Structure formats: structure tokens, C-alpha cells
């Protein structure tokens, strides 16, 4: 079974378990059911409607990034009832998709039996051309919906899929039209490099332009015009506000070549940068930027280089101390979505322009700029960037303000390999809000198949210095459940959303644990509450002082392994632990004369136990976090009260 089969199977399983098909749909997965014969419609009319529905769904995928249509599942019905199945002939459906599309679209149709229902899977490849229906209408999949394509969109998609590069077209501009300041900026950038490109800075202007790949037959290409010539109108608008919803305090409209406008935007952002000092355990001090410089560089450069050069609109940078937003004209490049932008292979809309920018050292050759943006935001103790893609523009938003210092400090102390690994940092960030993580939960965030996500999780759970622990109950399973190791939880401290923060929460967690397992230790409190040994010791001392716990380990008086059981003030469970005059008395242990009361009540007593003495013994079947099957119990032996 390949990754696609596994993802479909997982979605079907979730529907069977109570989800609905419409919730499981993605940018590449759609569920359909056959229309019913309402009124006096004939069977042929119903079949015709089904074919139109399926053809439309297939064309949407072909004009998008490809995908799978599953026929035989109701959209809004949860559980087994959703699997209505279909008796449609697979070969006929395949033929009708081919016949009703222009140019003809060939899909792969497979049968699948699930929950006793026959389903059809239509696997649609990403089209080389733009496909339309028999009436010439073209639609494409964006997110989980199909949208009509405008003539301009059709032209753009055709150009991208045919390999057309708008930035490679020859203009009427010559070397004489190049802005001297832009050319000087390029020479400075090249001179700052440490490889062979450094020598380009000394080349004659025609040779330098040729090395950048922005000339053709003595004329500048569109890439050269954008990079080095003054535009006819402003191409970048920079706004600064004191708050995201406030009026702009500064507005800069830049009518400069890209080589200058990019550097000017960075200068404007840096001029209003705020820094937060963070001291590491080693004594080293870091300066955390409200918007990491590398993340800003990538967001701005992507907007300038990947924009639709046919649109007259400007790139807009909206800056406040809390949010930095970069908006670029034009949609995402065909094949790139917000759901795969982290891991998809680079597909520049303007390859010649991108090549020149990379030669200048302004963009990564590997095309992992978004990956770097995510990594830098986490390293600075901030939330992930938010990317919103519309049909005519793309927006990247980064949240600034006060950083989460605990996360920034933790990441700074990681080994170099993990500190530079975006997958690792995204998993750490996820575990700051969730106590556990699975491959199924993290895979969509990493934008990887579940199998790859599981491999990453297992790597992080390997070795003495690993960041994660796998639960014993899932260690031998194909997919495990993981949580941060104790040292990681201690280091992250207040960054953990589930970290205990008040006395009531401490009491609740300790009481629940003791009820479940019979006892608790300092080490367990550390794990439950994400605190160090000293804080756990203080909490246990307070719980003993208030009578909620008593020590049940004999012989020793201190240490992280000392066990504590219920004390005289330990609360009972509603409806199970008798309180007041109906409480059982004369309990002598699980084998005593009141064994029925013992099995019902155990040692969970809330009565006034004056005159009682504390016994300790063995209680089988109790365990703490899967370690062992026996633990100490504490019980009060009472006479008549």
C-alpha cells in the first residue's frame, strides 16, 4: 500500500468512526455520492447528472495539483451510514470523463470495498494542459472547493505548465537604461560573497549583466528590466502603523528597481526593529528580534520574485510592532499550495529573474526559503507564519510582539543539527501545546506523509540525548505516541501550555494520579507538572502538611523515589466513597471480614479518622505509568467511631 492508499484508508476509517466526509476532504481528496432518482427523472437522467458531477470534480483536480475522487460516500453523514456505495460501471465512468473533457482527460479508476460498500476511486493526474468541459468551462481546485478560472488565470496556468518564463522575454531596454545605483548595489552584493561569484563584481557592465543572465541579443530581458531599471510606477508600498488596526504613520511608495527596493524595505523594517535580550544557561546573551531578519528577507524576496509580472499591482508590506504582513500580486505558482509549500520542489514563476537573484546571493539555491522562514520564527520564540493564498494574491503574516523566551532559550541550547532542522522545531512547538504527538497529528503540519513523520518522531526518540519518549503501549506499533522527555519539559518550563500553574491544578492532578495508581513520587510530580525536583518537593511537602498525602515508603525520609499515598484529608470520589455516618468501619485489609466494602472503597476514605492507625501493604493491579504491577497501599484500620 502506498502513501496515497494509506491516506485514503485513514480518512475512510475516521468517517467510519464518526467523522463526516466533508471534514476529511483536502486539496487532493474529494468524496461524492450518486444523485438519487427524485421525482420522475429517468435512470438515464440520473446517470447523466452523476457523470457531470464526476467530470467536474476530475477537471478541477486536473487543473489544480491532481487528486482523488472517491464515489460512494455521503458528504454529511457520519459513521457507517455514510458508505452508500455505488453500482456505477468503472470503465464507463472512465470513458465518459475522457469524452466530456477538452482536451480529453484520462483518469485511473479503481474499486475499493470498505464497510461492506463498493467504492470507486478516480485518480486524476495534474494536467499538462488546462482542461475544460464540453462547453469550454474550466475550473480548478483551490483548497476543498472548485472555482471557475478566468481567462487571465487560464493563460497563466498554461504558461507555467508549458515552461514559459515571462521574465526571459526580451525588452527594448539596453545597458544604458540600467540604474547606476542598482548596478552598484549588485556589485556590492557580489563582492560580499565568499565563492567564485565574488569575481563578478569586477566585470565590465555588459559581462556582469551576461553573468546575471539578464540580457538577450544586446537587450535586457524582463528580468533585467525588473532587477535594474526604474519602473514606470511604484512596485512596492511600505506602511508602518503603531497597531495593526491603526492609521499608517508612515507610507513609502518605492519606484525603484528590485535590487534597490528590496534593500530599502529591509532598511525600513530594521529601523523600527525591537530587540528582547535573552540570557542562556551558559551566560551567553542573545538578542531576539521581533521579526527575525532572515524570515523578513525570505518573505520580501519571495513576494518580489514570485509575483505575477503581468499584474500592475504593488507588493505591499504592512508593518506594526505586532504583525508584519507581505502581500504579493498573483496566485501561488501552479502545483504549490499552502498545504505543500514547505516540502514541494521549487517552481519559480519567473525562473530567469530567480536565477539572477540567486547569483546575487539574495535567495537560496535549494528553494527552501519558506522552510527557513518557519525555522527562524520558531527559533525566535514565535508562532509559525500564516500563509493565505487567493486567486489573485498571496499574503504572508508574521506575528511579532513579546517572544516566548522559554522556547527561544530552549532552541538556542539544542545541538546544531536539531536547531537547524525545521521538522524538529515544528514538533517541539506542537508539543508546547499538546502533551502527546502522533504521526497522524503532526504530518499535516510538517506537510509530509505519515510514514515520514513517524520516521522523524522515532529519530527524535532515539539515543540518550533524544528529545522524545515513545509510550510503552505503542512502542511496538507501526505508529507510536510520543511526548517530550523529562529534561526537555524541564527546559521548556513555562512554554508548555499544559504546565501546572496554580495550587488547585496541582491538587487535582496529584489526586487523580493517586486515585489511579495508589501512590505518587517526586519524580512523577515532575513529569505531571513539568517542574524540577525542588519545586516538586515543595508541593509534596505542602500536600502532606494539609493531610492530602502521607508517606507510605518505610525506612527513608527523602528522595525522588519516596512514595506517598492518600492522607486523612484525601478527597473521595463522588458516588463511590461513602462519607459521614454511612462510611464503613473496622476495615482490616483486602482479606478481612469487610472485604466487600474494601473492594468497593479501598483506602479512599474521607471520614474523620481520629483514633485510626495507618497500615501499609501490597496492592496488586496498581501501577504507575506502566511501570510494574504492584505498588504500596495505605489504609486506615479503624474501630467504631
TrEMBL record:
InterPro entries: RecG_C_sf, Schlafen_AlbA_2_dom, Schlafen_AlbA_2_dom_sf, WH-like_DNA-bd_sf. It comes from the Bacteria. Signal peptide: none annotated. Residues 25-150 form the Schlafen AlbA-2 domain. Residues 563-573 have a biased composition (Low complexity). Gene3D superfamilies: 3.30.565.60, 6.10.10.130, Schlafen, AAA domain (3.30.950.30), Winged helix-like DNA-binding domain superfamily/Winged helix DNA-binding domain (1.10.10.10). Residues 560-597 are annotated as: Disordered. Coiled coil: none annotated. This is Putative transcriptional regulator. The lineage of its organism: Bacteria, Bacillati, Actinomycetota, Actinomycetes, Frankiales.
Amino acid at each position: 500500500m502506498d502513501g496515497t492508499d494509506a491516506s485514503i484508508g485513514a480518512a475512510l476509517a475516521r468517517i467510519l468512526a464518526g467523522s463526516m466526509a466533508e471534514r476529511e476532504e483536502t486539496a487532493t481528496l474529494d468524496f461524492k455520492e450518486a444523485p438519487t432518482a427524485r421525482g420522475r427523472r429517468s435512470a438515464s437522467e440520473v446517470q447523466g447528472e452523476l457523470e457531470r458531477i464526476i467530470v467536474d470534480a476530475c477537471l478541477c483536480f486536473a487543473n489544480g495539483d491532481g487528486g482523488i475522487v472517491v464515489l460512494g460516500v455521503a458528504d454529511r453523514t457520519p459513521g457507517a451510514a455514510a458508505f452508500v456505495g455505488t453500482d456505477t460501471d468503472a470503465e464507463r465512468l472512465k470513458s465518459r470523463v475522457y469524452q466530456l473533457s477538452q482536451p480529453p482527460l484520462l483518469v485511473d479508476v479503481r474499486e475499493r470495498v470498505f464497510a461492506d460498500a463498493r467504492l470507486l476511486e478516480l485518480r486524476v493526474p495534474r494536467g499538462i494542459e488546462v482542461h475544460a468541459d464540453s462547453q469550454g468551462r474550466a475550473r480548478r481546485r483551490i483548497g476543498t472547493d472548485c472555482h471557475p478560472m478566468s481567462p487571465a488565470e487560464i493563460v497563466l496556468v498554461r504558461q507555467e505548465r508549458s515552461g514559459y518564463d515571462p521574465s526571459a522575454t526580451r525588452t527594448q531596454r539596453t545597458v544604458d537604461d540600467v540604474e547606476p545605483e542598482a548596478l552598484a548595489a549588485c556589485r556590492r552584493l557580489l563582492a560580499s560573497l565568499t565563492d567564485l561569484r565574488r569575481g563578478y563584481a569586477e566585470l565590465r557592465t555588459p559581462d556582469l549583466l551576461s553573468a546575471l543572465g539578464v540580457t538577450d541579443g544586446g537587450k535586457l530581458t524582463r528580468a533585467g528590466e525588473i532587477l535594474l531599471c526604474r519602473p514606470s510606477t511604484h512596485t512596492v508600498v511600505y506602511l508602518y502603523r503603531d497597531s495593526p488596526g491603526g492609521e499608517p504613520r508612515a507610507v513609502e511608495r518605492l519606484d525603484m528597481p528590485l535590487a534597490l527596493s528590496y534593500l530599502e524595505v529591509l532598511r525600513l523594517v530594521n529601523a523600527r526593529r525591537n530587540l528582547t535580550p535573552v540570557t542562556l544557561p551558559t551566560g551567553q546573551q542573545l538578542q531576539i528580534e521581533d521579526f527575525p531578519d532572515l524570515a523578513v528577507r525570505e518573505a520580501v524576496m519571495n513576494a518580489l520574485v514570485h509575483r505575477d509580472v503581468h499584474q500592475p499591482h504593488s507588493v505591499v508590506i504592512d508593518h506594526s510592532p505586532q504583525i508584519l504582513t507581505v502581500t504579493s500580486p498573483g496566485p501561488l505558482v501552479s502545483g504549490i499550495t499552502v498545504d505543500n509549500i514547505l516540502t514541494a520542489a521549487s517552481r519559480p514563476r519567473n525562473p530567469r529573474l530567480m536565477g539572477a537573484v540567486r547569483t546575487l546571493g539574495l535567495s537560496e539555491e535549494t528553494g527552501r526559503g519558506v522552510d527557513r522562514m518557519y525555522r527562524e520564527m520558531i527559533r525566535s520564540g514565535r508562532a509559525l507564519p500564516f500563509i493565505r493564498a487567493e486567486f489573485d494574491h498571496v499574503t504572508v503574516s508574521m506575528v511579532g510582539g513579546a517572544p516566548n523566551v522559554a522556547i527561544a532559550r530552549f532552541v538556542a541550547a539544542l545541538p546544531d543539527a536539531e536547531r537547524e532542522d525545521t521538522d524538529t522545531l515544528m514538533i517541539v512547538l506542537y508539543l508546547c501545546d499538546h502533551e502527546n504527538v502522533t504521526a497522524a497529528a503532526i504530518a499535516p503540519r510538517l506537510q509530509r506523509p505519515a510514514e515520514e513523520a513517524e520516521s522523524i518522531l522515532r529519530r527524535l526518540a532515539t539515543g540518550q540525548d533524544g528529545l522524545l519518549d515513545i509510550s510503552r503501549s505503542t512502542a511496538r506499533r507501526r505508529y507510536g505516541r510520543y511526548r517530550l522527555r523529562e529534561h526537555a519539559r524541564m527546559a521548556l518550563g513555562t512554554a508548555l501550555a499544559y504546565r501546572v500553574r496554580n495550587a488547585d491544578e496541582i491538587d487535582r492532578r496529584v489526586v487523580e494520579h493517586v486515585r489511579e495508581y495508589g501512590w505518587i513520587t517526586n519524580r512523577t510530580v515532575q513529569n505531571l507538572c513539568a517542574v524540577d525536583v525542588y519545586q516538586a518537593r515543595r508541593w509534596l511537602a505542602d500536600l502532606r502538611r494539609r493531610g492530602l498525602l502521607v508517606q507510605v515508603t518505610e525506612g527513608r525520609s527523602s528522595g525522588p523515589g519516596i512514595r506517598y499515598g492518600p492522607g486523612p484529608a484525601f478527597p473521595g470520589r463522588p458516588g463511590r466513597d461513602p462519607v459521614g455516618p454511612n462510611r464503613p468501619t473496622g476495615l482490616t485489609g483486602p482479606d478481612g471480614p469487610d472485604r466487600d466494602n474494601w473492594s468497593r472503597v479501598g483506602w479512599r476514605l474521607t471520614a474523620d479518622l481520629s483514633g485510626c492507625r495507618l497500615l501499609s501493604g501490597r496492592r496488586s493491579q496498581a501501577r504507575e505509568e506502566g511501570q510494574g504491577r504492584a505498588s504500596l497501599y495505605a489504609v486506615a484500620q479503624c474501630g467504631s467511631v
